[in-house]
Every structure is written in C-alpha cells, then in structure tokens.
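Anyone opening a protein record will find just a pair of labelled lines. With that in mind, the following record should read easily:
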Amino acid sequence: MCEHKQFLIQSSDEIVGMRIDAGAAELLEDYSRSQLEKAISAGALLLNGKTVKARTKLKGGDSLSLDATFFRQTPILPEPIPLTILYEDDDMFVVNKPAGMITHPTDTVRTGTLVNALLASGRPLATLLGADRPGIVHRLDAQTSGALLIAKNDVTAEALKHMFQQHLVKKRYLAIVEGSWQTEGTVVDKALGRNPKHPEKQAVRSDGRNALSRFITLEAQTEASFMAVDIATGRTHQIRVHAAYCSHPVVGDTVYGFRRQRHAFAHHLLHARRLSWQHPHTGQEITVVAPLDDEFLRALSLYGFHVPLSDDKDIAPF
C-alpha cells in the first residue's frame, strides 16, 4: 500500500484557485472535505512540503502530498463476487457493474465493492491510482448499473485516464425519468459543484466545474419517459443532477428526486449502456453494450416502454 500520495497542480487544472481542503477533496475522492481539513491541521496534508491553513488557495505549480497513514484503513481483501465480463483483451476489460455495488472502497466501506471482486478475479490490474483503486480509471455511482472499463496495467491506465479527461471515450446511458419529457436532444450545459448546504450532494453552481449532458427521448408516457443520455464530461452525479434541474429526476432517485416514489424499485433507474473508444495501443474502435438488469426491465414493462435493441440511436458529437 502506498503510504504517501503526491499531486502536482498544473496551471490548467480546474482546482487552481480553490482552497486546499476543497481542491484536495476533488483529487482525493475517498476522503471527505472535513477529513482532509483534519489532515491539514495535523500536518498530514502538506502544500509544497509545508503545513498551511485549510483556506490557503491552490496555484499552478503547487505540490500536494498526503501521508496516507493518517487515514490508515483495514486492508482491501479479495472476495469471490461474480463478475459479468462484456469485453476483454490483454490490456483492459469491461464489466457490467450491478446496481448497489460501490466501485471502489471508501474510508467506511471496505468490503463488497467492485475492487474486492476484481482482486479475486485473478486478472492483472493497474496500480497507477493506488491500492484502493486497482485498475479503476473511471467509476459509476453505487446505484447505477452498467459498463465500467478496467485497466490491466499502468501504461493502459495512464492512456485511458487521459482519454477520459479529453472526452475521447463516448458514454451512452439509459434512464427512466419522472414525467413526460418530449425532446429530440436537450443539451444541459450547467456547471456542477458541491452543494453548500449538503456537502455530500452536488448542485448546479456558476462557480462549479463544467458539465455537459444531452437527453434524448426514446419513449414518453404521462407518468415517465425513457431517455438516452450522452455525457461529454463525467462529473459526480452529473446525469442525476442535470435531470433534476430540468424537473425530470431519475425515477427511484431519492437524493435528487422524490423521497416518496410512486413505485418501489431496488435502485434508481440509470444504466451505463454503452462505451465506445479507440484502443490506445492498437487503434481498434471498440464498442461495448451492457445488458439491462431485471429491475430495469421490470420498470420498462411497468411503464409500457419497449425493451431497447443493442443498436439504439448512435452517439452523436456535441
């Protein structure tokens, strides 16, 4: 386990100008802002090798270093959790993550995650992002199901991470949202940041990080609409916040939608349907489609929507 984490802040990074506690929380998603404030006060999180106040602003060229022993946790152990593999080659593979599974361990959840399952799969996994995130180059919310790309080695992990940052991986989601939403392509270009009243949530904020989503109606009923969603960015809770902003929250989402749902579902109805990317080493164009789970299929039947074919509408550029 890597005991120290170091980050060099580039002048183009979006956290430039943020307080060190807020910027560190963006870089170190396993830790809350309040936890990082404690690390700063204890001298476990340093700026350019020195102790500073949490309110200190980040600049291009700054270096952050965290003594991870301050947050020493129970080790992550392999668990024989079944995985559905949708694609695999020598450098990477794609799993169909089930709803209800956290992508990687947090400071409070150390078992039952996708990482626990990956460690037990016997496959090589990239170590670039640390012991708690072997192979992980992007993630899905715990209650969101679907396609998740995993790197087998550090060279591939670095390449894929860059591709996600440059929006070169095309992502298509399927969702069922509240109400009748008739649109051929509503583009929501609204920046997102932490909700000042509820830090565990995201909100539309003028001073947030840019976020771009497009919602396309596949079918609409009075009670709900079946949507395809393309995203050009991958912010935390992006689709859920943007859908709620448009007054059509994702069905089953009790955080950004209705606390009391019309129908009971085991998870919110958001699914990472398709990933399309160019293999960073071979140049091969790859598209992977993730089948819907039984709960999503039940919801489609309940609302009277058709089950989509694997060749649903092509992903168009923004």
Observations:
- The mean pLDDT is 92.
- The chain has six helices and 14 strands.
